[in-house]
Design brief:
By secondary structure, the protein is α+β, with helices and mostly antiparallel strands. Helix content is 34%, strand content 26%. The strands form four sheets. The chain has an eight-stranded antiparallel sheet with strand order 13-12-9-10-11-14-18-16. α10 packs antiparallel against α11. The chain is globular.
């Protein structure tokens, strides 16, 4: 009998597709890129035009998912949603009428990504967070503006002294401390958590652009207990399901919650193993079972780091190169990548999480030199 199949829809579906494959499922992917390794991992892949610029739209996404389902060797078990749906809960609701959503519901996404409802819930539960408003104060120095439902950090900017923001944004006081990411695999019957250290990769006027993360990191026992308590409280009240993540700022041992992402995220790249244990646990949680037996049976995360290489030097037409083994999200040769947007993902494993972080940053430089070096040679050849 053929392997079970799973639909994936995300801005970038490669990390989920890799975990799905490792877990013994066949991925069917709709995303914005159709990178080389995504196409290799997937049984079939549909690229959604303009998804990164305009967001997912029912009129293009639904037919793509229908085509993927029609060509699948077996009817899909359900649909897993990655990044790209946090501000489109109505679309998730419509998709749920056609496909089984393996993850958080549309109502959970709506509750989690509505700043007024979310931060009111945090106050009710006694969970510390930065001061948050729908509009910045008259003197907005020390405040940030964020777009509702966005991800990746490029939507975050510092406010000017006098600032006005649009209807789809909110204001939050900038918080001192160290960034911390908590990945959860949660259901009503059980939960497990792991911790990672993210970092930013600043660009002009966007100092909070996501750079990468490393895990698994060890925490002070009291801090870890408090973080798990936060994760359990919010999982229960928001009805979180499956793989989710929590972004926090920790200042002098005190965690302040910034946001919850009700979907699988970038931490799959550092926490999954060769058996796809994270996806197996996600399926268990998303179908109402306890994910912890799946994890305790074999899960042992290594010190790993993953980081985005951005086209920060200049616009680039991706050359045809021999990609290093430690890369993923490899664009099709000839793809035009505009300045400051992602080029590829770089990975590293080390004896410690510190060593993994150092190595992945070294590899970012190596890959940048390789890509831009080849691109320059190609230009010189054309000029001749």
């Amino acid at each position: 009998m053929s392997q079970p199949t799973v639909l994936i829809a995300a801005f970038a579906g490669r990390a989920l597709a890799a975990s799905v494959r490792r877990a013994g499922y066949v991925p069917l992917v709709a995303d914005a890129f159709g990178d080389l390794d995504t196409a290799r991992l997937a049984h079939s892949c549909e690229v959604i035009p303009d998804a990164m610029r305009r967001g997912f739209r029912e009129q293009t996404l639904l037919p793509a998912l229908e085509r993927l389902s029609a060509c699948a060797p077996r009817p899909p078990e359900g649909l897993v949603l990655g990044a790209g749906f946090e501000e489109h809960s109505k679309l998730v609701e419509r998709l749920s009428h056609r496909f089984r959503i393996l993850g958080c519901s549309a109502s959970t996404i709506r509750e989690t990504k509505d700043p007024t409802r979310f931060f009111t819930l945090l106050d009710k539960l006694g969970i510390a967070h930065p001061e948050t408003r729908s509009k910045p104060p008259a003197d907005a120095r020390g405040w940030l503006t964020k777009r509702i439902g966005a991800s990746g950090g490029v939507h975050i900017a510092r406010c000017r002294a006098s600032a006005r923001i649009g209807a789809h944004r909110y204001a939050q006081r900038e918080q001192a401390g160290a960034l911390l990411s908590m990945t959860g695999i949660v259901s009503k019957k059980g939960a497990a958590f792991a911790f990672a250290q993210p970092w930013v990769s600043p660009m002009p006027r966007r100092p909070f652009r996501y750079g990468g993360l490393v895990g698994s990191i060890d925490l002070d026992a009291d801090l870890e207990a408090r973080l798990i308590e936060i994760g359990l409280d919010l999982s229960r009240h928001l009805e979180l399901m499956g793989l989710v993540s929590f972004d926090l700022m920790v200042n002098e041992g005190v965690p302040n919650l910034l946001e919850v992402n009700p979907r699988p995220g970038a931490s799959i790249d550092i926490f999954d193993d060769d058996d796809g244990t994270l996806f197996k646990a996600h399926i268990a949680a998303a179908t109402g079972s306890d994910p912890t037996p799946v994890l305790t049976a074999s899960w042992a995360p290594k010190p790993r780091a993953a980081a985005y290489l951005y086209a920060d030097r200049a616009d680039i037409e991706v050359p045809d190169i021999a990609w290093p083994q430690w890369t993923s999200d490899r664009p099709v040769p000839g793809t035009f990548v505009s300045r400051y947007t992602p080029l590829a993902t770089v990975h590293a494993t080390g004896a410690s999480h510190e060593a993994a972080a150092v190595l992945v940053k070294e590899r970012l430089g190596q890959l940048e030199a390789l890509l831009y070096g080849h691109a320059k040679k190609n230009e010189e050849t054309l000029d001749e």
